[in-house]
Amino acid sequence: MASRAAGTYPPVPEPLAHPVVDTHTHLDICTGVRLPLGAGEPEPEVTPNEDEEFPSLDFFHDTAAEAGVRRIIQIGCDLPAARWTTELVASEYAAGRTWMLGGAALHPNEAPRLAERGLLDDALNEIEALVTSHDRMRVVGETGLDYFRTGEEGVAEQQRSFRAHIEIAKRTGRALQIHDREAHADVLRILKEEGAPEVTIFHCFSGDEEMARECATEGYYMSFAGNLTFKNADELRRAAAAAPLELLLTETDAPFLTPHRGKPGGPYLTAITARKLAEVRGMSEADLCSAVWANAQRAIGSWD
């Protein structure tokens, strides 16, 4: 992917007419932190380049506030990142900064890698312990299925891991945040078979209009990221227009899926997605942002 060094980040957009929430971001990757591994654990899929100088946490806090992105959910999607997320969320709250909540899970691509080492069951137990270790860990995610990067040999372990995460979310009363890449039918099927948690969110929604209507029928939230702005995303924009307003959320998946092709992203770029979402739905910026702000609090709870 593009360089994530400090000087490569796009400019901060004009502040929004009403604040919004970045419901899915990866500050561990954005800040280039190198995280310790447990015994036998695989290296993360994305590792920082030691020759680059990454922005600080304060950079992402301050630029988000400047753009009107007042709240974020930091997601740790492998064991090292999940541990780091839990510590960061607790320390930020202890320092009096209430902008951040957290989530932790095993990304679907992690499941076969851990299973190969005989570590998947222990990893799932640790994820449950982490998300219940602090009240500000509100999300089990991102979990789900990814048939783009993992071949047929990894499908069974991905599905087993996904089912386990669904149960963790229900047991702990946390929201479930789903990664779904080229696996729409199986994700929807497994949710029905297991019984979805009360709050289920499709992170970086990637389905079409028909899938948006099916998610709406089930009451699933649909969160849209920077790819909503891409030139070839007409089908995604139709889905965003069809989704009920009360089920819409905004996110970045930073540093990925930035509206600025070839550059990394940060939570502050949620502002660009929110403006595009308002345009797609024919709404004022203020009304759209007010709605997704309220949706995030209803789904996740208070940040205060």
Q: How would you summarize what this structure contains?
A:
This protein is of the alpha/beta class and about 300 residues long. It contains 11 helices and 8 strands. The mean pLDDT is about 95.
Task: Explain what the structure shows.
The chain has 304 residues and is α/β, with parallel strands linked by helices. It is built from eleven helices and eight strands. It has an eight-stranded parallel β-sheet. Helix 3 packs parallel to helix 5, helix 8 runs parallel beside helix 9 (234-242) and helix 10 (270-281) crosses helix 11 (285-300). The chain is globular, with a radius of gyration of 18 Å.
Under the CATH scheme, the architecture is Alpha-Beta Barrel
User: CATH H level: which superfamily?
Assistant: Metal-dependent hydrolases
The helix/strand class is alpha/beta
Q: How is the largest sheet built, in terms of strand order?
A: 1-2-3-4-5-6-7-8
CATH topology: TIM Barrel
Rg: 18 Å
Q: Which runs of at least 5 residues are low in confidence (pLDDT < 50)?
A: none
> How many domains would you count in the coordinates?
1
Portion of residues within helices: 40-55%
Characterize the main sheet. 8 strands, parallel
Rounded to the nearest angstrom, the distance between the terminal CA atoms is 35 Å
Tell the overall outline.
globular
Strand content: 15-25%
SS field, number of helical segments: 11
- Average residue-wise pLDDT: 95
- The total of beta strands comes to 8
Query: What is the element string, with H for helices and E for strands?
Result: EHHEHEHHEHEHEHEHEHH
